[in-house]
Amino acid sequence: MAELSLRNIDKVYEKDGVKAVSDFNLEIKDKEFVVFVGPSGCGKSTTLRMIAGLEEITSGELYINGKLMNDVAPKDRDIAMVFQNYALYPHMNVYDNMAFGLKLRKFKKDEIDRRVKDAAEILGLEAFLDRKPKALSGGQRQRVALGRAIVRDAQVFLMDEPLSNLDAKLRVQMRAEIQKLHKRLETTSIYVTHDQTEAMTMATNLVVLKDGIIQQVGAPKAIYDNPDNVFVGGFIGSPAMNFFNGTLDEDGFHVSGNGQVITVPEGKMKVLRENNYIGKEVILGVRPEDIHDEPVFLDANPGSTIEANIDVAELMGSESYLYSKLADQDFVARVDSRTDVSGGETITLAFDMHKCHFFNAETEERIK
Amino acid sequence: MISKKRQSKIILTIASTIIALIWLSPFYLMIVNAFKSKFEIFSNVLSLPSEWKFDNFVQAFIDLDFLNALTNSFIVTFLSVLIIIVFSSMAAYALARNKSKLSGVFFLVFVAAMLIPFQSVMIPLISIFGRIDLLNTSGLIFMYLGFGSSLSIFLYHGAVKGIPVSLDEAAMIDGASRWRIFWTIIFPMLKPITVTVMILNVIWIWNDYLLPSLVLSQKSATIPLRMFFFFGQYTKQWHLALAGLTLAIIPVIVLYFFAQKHIIEGVAEGAIK
Q1: What ipTM was assigned to the predicted interfaces of this complex?
Q2: Do A89 and B173 touch (CB under 8 A)?
């Protein structure tokens, strides 16, 4: 069991002088399942590899259980890692793949046997112990890679996009399996992904990254409900949050382009007023599910209704996504699938302004 | 009416049979004539022998001091190829995994060495080796390492690049040293290319005449050197030479058949990724 502490960590690649990670500060508590999420090239894998010791830390400090790890070899950090391409040894069978790390650490034969068989049982791999990796399916290979981490009984599990090589259905299944595994083993885990769904569903603590800089840290729900900036709001959630440019005055939010006024609730208005945003440009962020078409809602919120010409309506089954524009600014509404609309029709929608967010137009930070 | 598909199949079969026959004809000539008398070889080189003379083999065996020559050839070939495989695979691994500029330069130098014709370095090489008293079997093996490494490193380098670095990293986290990673993870995965390197070098070294002729003494002569015994200034004993050659290629053919299985295995393994 382990706690990690990353302090002011920077990573600069000497070759091209690219700063991959800058001033990374994070405390990871014991038993946490931390997910690093961000678009490709945001530094999430680099950070994970620095924790593993596969990448040198340019400056800053990495502590595991209070011990400085910067110059400790990967094998001495007591970590286990699962790779995107599984990295199974192709000429060894499943048993030997899992046993390899233990053999190198000079474990007794019966202890190795016990651990490998235990891990195989947890992962449902008992029948495949004699097989070579090439004779396994993608999901089974990924399980062997997990097994290799489990047998080690390491303090920290590091997972680098472990599900991205699997097909969609298997990914959902393995996602649940990894969560179950974490509940059972309670090993501190760090998981890297670019898939915000994976990040939302698995994390106990979510770290959103962009360009090597932490954008926000928190529980998935907290981040979803209160994104710190436009990037986080747009990245977390699917479909993404809608953003509208406009200006504020005492009447409400004036949408750029057509000047339509949307009434802002007093509670929000008070915050905006206190921060001197009246008369200034701001960005309004509305989640697709906070755009409604139910008559009851429309009647109750006459100040935030808009007339929307629907470009495309996508029926997803349980819900429908309506793609439209408000004064040339694209947005998506997520409504009940009973709404019978098709492309080209015009309907009335209303924003749930109690759940919307305002962002500074220049810094793109949320106004709190 | 024969379908078009079948027609092309028949043409292909005939063509490949002809090519195969052309390919096999030297073997036919060598083996058939090894059983003839010298006179019969010259009177009718293509026919089967009127009388199968096994005496040629016995005579060739004695004249060549065959067991001694075979042992010499075996020692030189086995040790040279072994050392070439060990050193060039390790060198290629280091060069492929180390992405510095210097390693790029080294690799280029190794590859460029392939273009140096042997004849241009032959005289200085022999004079230098003579001065340090290395004109013997171990000196020869050392020379083969030098001449054989560049192509082998080139081949291994390409193969190592095809192995994902994450395997090295996984093994590193598992607790393996660089040395261990190479020998237990990487080298076994290079098996197909090792077989290729082995065959190329065995064929070359086993059959090489020029370099051993400059380096080796009569006592430690390899089979190709001894074969020269049959080709005097005035007489050429073709019947004995061909019998000797037949004996000499047996080990190489055996090796090839043994290795062929591994080549196919290696190709198949590479296909299922």
Answers
A1: 0.84
A2: no
